[in-house]
Amino acid sequence: MKRIDCRDLVSKIAQIIDERVKAESVVQIGEVRAIRDAKRTREPARLWLIDDDESIRRALIRIFADDNYQIFSAANANEIDQVLGGGAPNLILLDIGLPWINGFELAELMKSHRDLAQVPIVFISGQNSMPIIKKGFQVGAHDFITKPFDIEALKKTVKTLLALNS
Questions:
Q1: Cβ contacts of 158 within 8 Å, gap of 6 or more
Q2: Tens digit of each residue's pLDDT (9 = 90 or more) over 80-122
Q3: Does residue 2 form part of some domain?
Q4: Partner of 137 at 20 to 30 A CA spacing, among 59, 106, 107, 118?
């Protein structure tokens, strides 16, 4: 498994969040969930899931864990260092409406990082206007799935992007 050094990305995120948090009193509650399936001999694909909705994170963890993926989740950009322990991701599932740094900003930061630039990003969002979807692709998304989403369609998208990127 290739280890990645994202200290510069974490530093940029921390700096942006620090600037935005100074004006408000905030308590960040984070949780990392790593689901690993040791049944198969091949290394499972690693997915980073960044969504502030805990119910969405839990549902996607269950959905993809059943298909032998490793899921590393975070509720927002401030928790990105918690998913780094899983190594470089094979695909990133990213919400737009994140606190402090939105999904578009986070995608741009990731795409400018040498170890993450080629990783496919799939936006999963309840925002579905054409300007929002266009912006998603402009900042580097490989696909844009709107909430509520069809589970089988999402699984197919992830599987296809992983196959194309391998």
A1: 47, 64, 69, 91, 93, 122
A2: 887 877 788 999 999 999 999 999 999 999 999 999 999 999 9
A3: no
A4: 59
Place of tokens 């280890």: 3
- Answer whether residue 74 is part of any domain: yes
pLDDT tens column, 31-72: 333 333 433 446 789 999 999 999 999 999 999 988 889 999
What distance in Å separates the CA atoms of residue 112 and residue 19, rounded to the nearest whole number?
21
DSSP string, the chain: ------HHHHHHHHHHHHHHHTTS---------B----SSSSPPPEEEEE-S-HHHHHHHHHHHHTTT-EEEEESSGGGHHHHGGG-S-SEEEE-S--SSS-HHHHHHHHHTSTTTTTS-EEEEES---HHHHHHHHHTT-SEEEESS--HHHHHHHHHHHHHHH-
